[in-house]
Amino acid sequence: MKDKKKGLLHLLIVFAVIGLCTYTTLVGFTKHHKGSAQNIKLGLDLAGGVSITYEAVGDTPTKKEMEDTRNMMQKRAEVYSTESSVVISEAGRISVDIPGVEDAEEVLKSLGKEGSLDFVAQGDMQFEDDEQKVPKYTKVICSGKDVKSAEAGTQQESVTKNKEYVVQLKFKSKGTKKFAKATQAAYPSKEVIYIVYDGEVLSAPVVKAEITNGEAVISGSFKTYEEAEELASMIRIGALPVELKEVQSQVVGAQLGLDAIQTSLMAGIIGFILVILFMVVFYRLPGLAASIALAFYLVLMLVVLNVLDITLTLPGVAGIILNIGMAVDANVIIFTRIREELRKGKTVQSSIKLGFDKALSAIVDGNVTTLIAAFVLYIKGSGTVKGFATTLAIGIVLSFLTAIFVTRFILNAMYALGVDDVKYFGIERERKTIDFVGNRKKFFAISGALILACAVFLGINASGRADGNILNYGLDFSGGTTFDITFNDDQEINDDLKKDMEGIFSNEAKSNDVVISEIAGSNGLSVKTVELSEKQRNNITNTIAEKYKVKEGNIQNENISASVSDEMKSDAIVAVLIASLCMLLYIWFRFKDILFAGSAILALIHDVIVVLLVYAVTLISVGNTFIACMLTIVGYSINATIVIFDRIRENLAGKHSEETLARVVNESITQTLTRSINTSLTTFIMVIMIAILGVDSVRDFAIPLLAGIVCGGYSSVCIAATLWYTLRKKFKKDKQARIKGK
């Protein structure tokens, strides 16, 4: 029985919540709060941040010591932002870029001076003053080089059973032995071990037990988690293999520039409007409900990003784009199911209920597999990978909730208001089953040709490029040269100047890989490009000095290492491999068939190779956005494949004959074909607008992503399910042959 008042009330509640979230996004609650959208931290590529340069103290460190120091500084900088970048430059210097920060002094004060860290036994410690603030010692138990990690945490106090804040220390193998020997000597008389950082005693914990496993806990003196984290941070800083001192700090502007932000935002708005129009035209009333739910998802996403203080960069935006596609996908699956039930003659109310119920398993499986990938990428990844995983995970949860609950809530409210005619919903047409299985060899041949083409172009690049690289590695992967240019006061820093600088550097470097950002507080620009020879550097310096009357002393340059270190690359690769394994195990568990899991992973690898082919052919610069692009394809591809596998599982229902199996696969792909096309199309719309309107750096990210979306749709429809059928048929024959052999 319909209740129009209840339906109207439900709609009013939905619009009130959306209005509240929109108000929070645009305006905020207080006079001084600008709204969550304006308060979201943006990365160096979108809004700039603080750049700090450190120099090694003492003897010239080895290459390995500098690499180890950079890797540890990377982890330390990620406390402020997961998108922080740390690179090694010439003359034993390390540069740290922390996005979303404007006050360099505040960061330096919080980051601290990079000094030495020593653990000193009570018997070896003396003080030069009565207040015991100036320690004096010549013998140490171990140093910061022996510390593996230091993290703040909580534990249950052994006597009161209350929660207490602690610092958890882990030592390296050599440090474990040294610390074990010291605690064995200190434990009987309950002596303390001093932790001294840069001539100051940070802590003096009492030894309450012999610690032989290299894992120590400092407890009892922390009133808040922040106090424990402060000590852990200082230990991490002091644990650097090389002692550093700060030589320069500056605030830099957005690397992509204001144009990139504005055009990307405009592209996103236009794309979102086109997606809404498509949903309303194609799915009618349910499409309208989904559009309202999508708007709710978007404003809620902005609120959450602000609340969780997440730094948003271009790869993070990729995660949001992917989530919009997945949110649309969930609604498309539901609406297709509703139309199928209407075709069977069910009532609108019954069809809505059955549509959501039958779509749930596919939506859950698709979201869980992608969420698994996001979780692993966050735990094992670093820098850009971690930032991408964060926005992806948040978006998955929010898009699932809006699709399953908000859309359903709105549809039921509209039905209660009397919008119950079938014409407002549409009926799924009966489609002639397409013989995908019969054409599988053609599909496999096309995919084989693409994979072969990838190998060929990678080989051509390796032999034909001057640097011998298989891809056009950008600054993030290969390092380069950075210039800091301070112009005369009468020279205005504007877009014309930046474009001229880009032309000067591009012409000399023979590369379009040029990143320009403003230096706050000075009339200057920071320019990064590919690695230049001394002659090229001198040519650029002379050109700028002559053209803009800049003193050569105001043009500083140096070579820098890749911001994506070998450790970060290996972390990303390991994260993807572990994520793929976890997804394989989950699919195996849910579908009770390892062939489903294996086929899905093979289809995923196929898509990654095709996107790699696009990079190899177009020679688009491979940087941080390359990682984001590949991870986006992984999430998108696996989700699309799961939907088809879910329908096969449903239609199979114990049927095992070869003829029936082929028919089930063909029918399942055909039944989900509209969903596959529409989901790919809506996601394609979002990205194509970025490719059309975006600046070069943004377009270089969007073009491979477009190829991945098309390929992901193709592999899900033409490869994954037919590959499963082929493997199942082969394994069944092998099993029968083994039985006959016995």
Task: State the main characteristics.
742 residues; 20 helices; Gyrase A, domain 2; Multidrug efflux transporter AcrB transmembrane fold; eight-stranded antiparallel sheet; alpha+beta; 19 strands; Alpha-Beta Plaits
SSE map:
Elements: H1 4-26, H2 36-39, E1 41-42, E2 49-56, H3 63-77, E3 85-89, E4 93-99, H4 104-111, E5 117-121, E6 126-127, E7 135-136, E8 142-143, E9 147-156, E10 163-171, H5 173-186, E11 193-197, E12 200-203, E13 215-218, H6 225-238, E14 244-252, H7 257-307, E15 311-312, H8 314-343, H9 348-380, H10 384-416, H11 440-464, H12 475-478, E16 480-486, H13 495-509, E17 515-520, E18 524-529, H14 534-548, E19 555-560, H15 566-591, H16 594-618, H17 624-652, H18 658-671, H19 673-693, H20 696-741
Parallel strand pairs: 1-15
Antiparallel strand pairs: 2-4, 2-14, 3-4, 5-8, 5-11, 6-7, 9-10, 10-13, 11-12, 14-17, 16-18, 16-19, 17-18
Helix pairs in contact: 1-7, 1-10, 7-8, 7-10, 7-19, 8-9, 8-10, 8-17, 8-19, 9-10, 9-15, 9-17, 11-16, 11-20, 13-14, 15-16, 15-17, 16-17, 16-20, 17-18, 17-20, 18-20, 19-20
